[in-house]
Amino acid sequence: MGVEMENRIQNNNDLLKEFQAYLDVERNLSKHTLRAYTSDIEHFLYWLKELNVADVNTNTIRLYLSQIQVFEYSKTTITRKIAALRTFYRFLYRERIIEYNPVDGIKSPKKPKRLPSFLNEDEIETVMNQVKPDTPTNARNRAILEVLYACGMRVGELCGLNFGNLNLEENEITVFGKGAKERIVLISQRAKEYLNLYINDFRKEYAKEGEFINEDTPVFINQTGYRLTTRSVDKLFLKLADNLQLGKKLSPHVFRHSFATKLLEKGADLRVVQELLGHASISNTQIYTHVSTERLKQAYSKAHPRAK
Questions:
Q1: What range defines the domain where residue 200 resides?
Q2: Which residues contact 99 (CB under 8 A, 6 or more apart)?
Q3: Could you identify which of 120, 194, 210, 245 might form a hypothetical disulfide with 146, taking C-beta atoms 3.0 to 4.6 angstroms apart as the criterion?
Q4: pTM for this prediction
Q5: C-alpha–C-alpha distance, residues 301 and 219, integer Å
Q6: Catalytic positions, please?
Q7: Which residues fall within 8 angstroms of residue 87, CB to CB, at 6 or more apart?
Q8: Residue of 184 and 297 predicted with greater confidence
Q9: Are 65 and 107 in contact (CB under 8 A)?
């Protein structure tokens, strides 16, 4: 390997580290997005070989995107890779390493419109009833299910809850969503009762010896007393899905979809649902109106004598 090639690789590694720091500190992206963008740019820099990042133009980007088609990535993944490249070159432009962003002329593929999976009220109740709050683990897991459905929060938001986030007297919980954006979600009386049952009667069984609960103490903990992970919650849903065989996908996000769909079916304002979900754009929330409309069409076709 020549000296020039070694220097280029070293420079790219330095740029990648600076880009990571920019995404983490300044953009405050989620850990998942940070990992994905870093991996995307790392792969791109490897593909460049001897070409300097400053010498890349729009045709280079198009060539790269055409060559990675051999991996048969989904449209969603390709869209993310383009977003990562666009962000990377915006960062380089800001640092005055390049004079223009070569990705600005690249259009992302249109994502196929898929209606989100959701459960109806009977199915939700079936899932809930699988977990009887009679042991520390079951009491915690039932509280998790009830809170996720009642509040519509993301699983990462739930696992990140501290006691300082709870204002149960007012039926409110403060969560920190994507980009550490703070919002208040509402909790139902039923969910609050299960949460209080877990906190007051069962949580102490897993708490570390001599634990002093303050505002930064995690609400949901594992059997060793540490904060519960999103992976543990995912495993709970996988186990429930395996036991129930509902014929539908079952996950924390499906609970979130079910929460939003039910609110809109009951007449909630779209802007209110947007606020509760923590969506930056109303367009992200509008997908649930399509779900409600589709169910209306199905009911109409089934019930109206002249629908067919």
A1: 121-303
A2: 93
A3: 194
A4: 0.64
A5: 46
A6: 154, 178, 253, 256, 279, 288
A7: 23, 27, 37
A8: 184
A9: no
